[in-house]
Here is the input.
Amino acid sequence: MTTGELDRFAAWIEELVRRRGFDIDSPRGGGKSRLADEAGVHRAAITRLLQRQSMPDLETMRRLAQVLQVPVRDMLIRSGRLSEEDLPLPSAPSAGHTAADGRRLTLEEAADGLGVSADQREMFIRIAGQFLPGEPARSAGRRAPLASD
Here is the structure.
């Protein structure tokens, strides 16, 4: 990773953070602490990123993506960890992702089709929802398609 890559990624994160209403410019650092708390990460990880000292680890990126409401895919590509070729978007929903009536399957329907047990259903939906492009993580109670438009 080059200094330029870290700088570009941190600048993108700063923009997202400000857009989501976190006051990261305050000398008291309240916005950084609140962001760290909401993401469930250590404040030092946020500080190091915003000061362009280090790139967050994958788990921190995943948690930040959820709080900042961006796809994990975007975080990984913008960080330089993976490329768009490594994480291609589906060109169109395949027949395997559609219900009999032609609409896209929801995560709940996918869990049913895959035989996910009731005790693992919520975790399956939460984790699978993180990998859908253009969508923040979803809760178990919401119906969500398997592929974006």
Remarks:
- DSSP finds seven helices and no strands in the chain.
- The chain has two domains: 3-79, 89-149.
- Residues 43 and 143 are 34 Å apart (CA to CA).
